[in-house]
Each structure stands twice: as structure tokens, then as C-alpha cells.
Amino acid sequence: QVLLVESGGGLVQPGGSLRLSCAVSLPFASIYGVAWYRQAPGKQRELVARISTAGTTLYADSVKGRFTISRDNAKNTVDLQMNSLKPEDTAVYYCNSGPWVGGTFQYWGQGTQVTVSS
Predict the structure, then answer these.
(1) Mean pLDDT of 86-91
(2) CA angle 98–103–107, rounded 5-degree value
(3) How far, in Å, are 7, 100, 102 from residue 109 at the CA level?
(4) 8: three-class secondary structure by DSSP
(5) Which candidate in 74, 76, 96, 114 could, as Cys together with 29 as Cys, close a disulfide (CB 3.0–4.6 Å)?
(6) Nearest to 25 by CA among 101, 95, 76
(7) Is 23 exposed, middle or buried (0-12, 13-18, 19+ CB in 10 A)?
(8) Predicted local distance difference test score (pLDDT) of residue 83
(9) Nearest Cα residue to 30 out of 49, 54, 2, 64
């Protein structure tokens, strides 16, 4: 059963924009926070942005002012708008949601590749 499905990744030039979307199929999805993480080759997975059930947001310092996380509880989707992309934003981006367990939410999506390159 696939509970989180990401879409919207791809190849973009530096300075460009992409919009990622996460479809959340968890029961009572609106009661959970949702986060986006990313993992670049050879690096640990890192938190990019998180949004609470009330809409409170949190961003990594590296993306503040460039990325915006938003949620649509009616559609059970969480989007990540990424502007002014840099090569260092290249990574696999993962959606994360569900009950809070050991420092992250319980469930993960399969990931979507974002490549920023000229």
C-alpha cells in the first residue's frame, strides 16, 4: 500500500523553479504534519521543510526565502514550491508524514529526483 506519492521532479537550470507535490493517502491525513526531506549522493538525508496541521512552517536555512511548503487538506496534498534553484539543491526529495516516531514521521514516499544543472 503506497501511502505517500511524490511527483514533479525533473531537470532544471540554475535559477529555475520546480513544484513538487505529495499525495497523502493516510487515513485522516489532515491530522498529520508533513515534511519534505532530501538526500544528495554521498550525503545524509536532511530536512528541507515541514508544515504542521495548523499550517505552521519550518525551513532549513539553506532553502529559506527560496522554497515554500503548503498544504491542501481538502485534496490531501502537500506541495513544495522551489524557486531560484541551485546545483546544490540536486537530490532525491522525499515526502514524510504520519505519526511522529523517533524524530521523523512514520511513513515515507518513494522519492522524486531533482537535478539542477546547466
Answers:
(1) 98
(2) 30
(3) 10, 15, 17
(4) coil
(5) 76
(6) 76
(7) middle
(8) 98
(9) 54
